[in-house]
């Protein structure tokens, strides 16, 4: 960051309950194999999660999350010492241990709202930070989708936190409007249509729609069948200014970026 070419963040879930079953991996050797394949296919960031936060789920406790994610980060940092390793966590204690173990970025679904120590911790470590918008814990967010002006409210929420992070000295900030988090299917498409608005925050914009409900519910299919639909919404995100695509399927996302760039150069 910053990159002129859109980047791909590959998802590595060490959970046993992530919404897309094929993304789950609990064996370190298999995790390393998947990571290597993602990097070979063109990912530049690996995002490791040990606590599913899909809407409506029961959140794993801190001890379980740490047990899942810390060995994964240690193994990845040893094998791929120059790669950007992101940890998908909203807990500062998990963030601290994994940053010490070699992670370089924290991907926080709560945007610092669930743990007041997160922003100061990220600042102390000089880490990158993905600032996402949501409302409430996963078991609450499905009921908190009322907005008077969706885009303006999400933007304002992120803008206030970008300001706080910058005041603390955090410079590597990525903003994520939080597709699927406290937004219904229609609202996700409203955000996608207005994604370019978030560029005004002066940070790279991340779009995380891979195999999410906005795709499979719209098409009447399952997450396992949602790769083609994911490629479509990722392409729309690129056309509307996305700088980073967070995906389960790296090869297809990289192909979308390559075709988008060929299209952009042909204008």
Automatic annotation (TrEMBL):
What are the EC numbers? 2.5.1.15
What is the protein named? dihydropteroate synthase
Listed GO MF terms: dihydropteroate synthase activity; metal ion binding
Q: What reaction gets catalysed by this protein? A: (7,8-dihydropterin-6-yl)methyl diphosphate + 4-aminobenzoate = 7,8-dihydropteroate + diphosphate
Q: Which residues cross the membrane?
A: none
- Per the entry, which co-factors are needed? Mg(2+)
Native source organism of the sequence: Candidatus Merdimorpha stercoravium
Give the metabolic or biological pathway: Cofactor biosynthesis; tetrahydrofolate biosynthesis; 7,8-dihydrofolate from 2-amino-4-hydroxy-6-hydroxymethyl-7,8-dihydropteridine diphosphate and 4-aminobenzoate: step 1/2
Give start and end of each Pterin-binding domain.
Answer: 6-258
